[in-house]
Amino acid sequence: MPAKSVTANRLSDGTVVYLTPGGGWSEYVREADWREDKEEQQALLERGEADVARSIVLDAYLIDVAIGEDGTPWPTRNREVIRSLGPTTRLDLGKQAELEG
Known about the structure:
Layout: E1 4-10, E2 16-19, E3 25-26, H1 38-53, E4 57-67, E5 73-75, H2 78-85, H3 95-99
Antiparallel strand pairs: 1-2, 1-4, 2-3, 4-5
Protein name: DUF2849 domain-containing protein
Organism: Ferruginivarius sediminum
Pfam family, one: DUF2849
């Protein structure tokens, strides 16, 4: 089974966020919790859905991630890669600006 993480949008500002191992939310997919076991993936999703019910985030759902040698997750689908990097219209905005030089 492919590894999965939970993503959502923060209710306060709409920013894309990822559920972390500590149960919080990070703007960076590299900090996301991930699981390969289907039952553990479901438990992750239920944690995300609990924060939807508490009006912390919107639309929590599982995404496929590839796991790097260092254990860091990265989205495998183009839609999620774009969501993780931010706007695509200007490279000086969003998280992709942080990757420059």
